[in-house]
Amino acid sequence: MTVREGSLEAPTRHPLDWKSPDFYDAAKLDKELERVFEICHGCRRCVNLCTAFPTLFDLVDASPTLEVDGVRKEDLSKVVDQCYLCDMCYMTKCPYVPPHAWNVDFPHLMLRAKAIRFRRHGAKLRDKLLSSTDAMGKLATIPVVVQIVNAANRAGFARGLMQQALGVHKARILPEYASTKFRGSARPDSSFPVRDGKGTPGKVAVYSTCYVNYNEPGLGHDLLKILAHNRIPAVLVEKEVCCGMPKLELGDLEAVARNKAVNVPVLARLAREGYAILTAVPSCTLMFKQELPLMFPDDAGVKAVAEAMFDPFEYLVARHKDGLLETNFRKPLGRISYHVPCHLRVQNMGQKTRALLEMVPDTRVTTIERCAGHDGTWGVKAEYYENSMKIGRPVFCQMAEAGPDYVSSDCAIAGRHILQGMGETKAQKQHPITLIRIAYGL
To answer: pLDDT of 54-73, one tens digit each?
Structure first.
């Protein structure tokens, strides 16, 4: 068989065989890590993506053989620690992903290593807390408690104690918790007649996400205003829990399965009733579009949900193509520095957010396609904070160069991280959904 150098075919992914005993075999994992790391060492195209690859290459270059076989097996986990499953190496850099015969899926190999570690050793209290978004959100948004939590997150002394006790870096600006949850205050309007388009169902179900529900309910309210302005009937998903992405990144695949068992029956029913399902957080959208289908490839409900799931801007731009989107924007937005988050890029749908923002008159969008380095809970942790800022530095500089009126990212956490990294600036941080609501004059 002739093995080609690289591949010109579109990447495809194999299902994640996470229920097989072989998946959790540590010896077989080490063998696969060495195989894939040897390929990465010989290629090195991904050296500028994150700190996982420089960590690997430094280990190899410092080894006595200058090859992967010279790296101590216990040091291989250092590479796993630096991977936060952004998927960018798989989708944009690696020439050896399937269908190439070498079958390199670096993120899912890192996920396998995390899953084995979690099964054998569990997780730190900090990591359990940070990945339990529903539990933390419910606790932190209790009246009176919410004021205490937010005050503590802003106080230097309390943050110093938090770093010592939990390992949450004291310099990381954390999102505040809302006193009123989105799901308790949202009033979606389902009274409009359904107008299906060629590429879009004419009615929408909004999956709130933990972040919108507990931290920034305004994003959810802005999305509902945009839908109502476009006379799109909308409902809330009547029952939901976390999509499972934080637990996936921890390697707790059983917890992912438990959340899937709650979410998918409700979402699948909505999908079969003809609803488009929208989430305002790219990681949640990606979880339902890609990760759950790879974990549960034979589940008809998971497949139905994946087919009905839309990023909000993917949906709105498709409505525009169907001639069903209002473009009566009343307020220009000026200069926007817009960051495309990794978990949006890997959905392979093009730059739909930018396309809609550029429809607003007298608006100039500068687009940055590069990882900002925060990635969910990874950039919050004390041991990774400096690396997260280092990875984000080129993004901070590019976002500032345009002299923007607004700094924006579809990932609200990345937007906050970028604003922190930019330092002193007159720019406002606003989510693209909020910018469209402003442009409509709503």
So the answer is: 999 999 999 999 999 999 98
Q: Whole domain around residue 145: which residue ranges?
A: 125-166
Give the orientation angle of helix 312-321 with respect to helix 217-229, to 10 degrees.
Answer: 10
Compute the distance between CA of residue 309 and CA of residue 305 in angstroms, rounded to an integer: 6
Residue 190 and residue 307 in one domain:
yes
Q: Helices 156-166 and 145-154 sit at what angle, rounded to 10 degrees?
A: 90
Q: Is 194 a member of any domain?
A: yes
Q: What is the pLDDT of residues 390-416, one digit of tens each?
A: 999 999 999 999 999 999 999 999 999
> pLDDT tens digits, residue range 336-372?
999 999 999 999 899 999 999 999 999 999 999 999 9
179: Cβ contacts below 8 Å, ≥ 6 apart: 141, 143, 146, 147
3-state class (DSSP) for residue 174: coil
Q: Give the span between the Cα atoms of 104 and 239, in whole angstroms.
A: 37
Residue 429: DSSP 8-state: E
Distance CA 60, CA 138 (A): 45
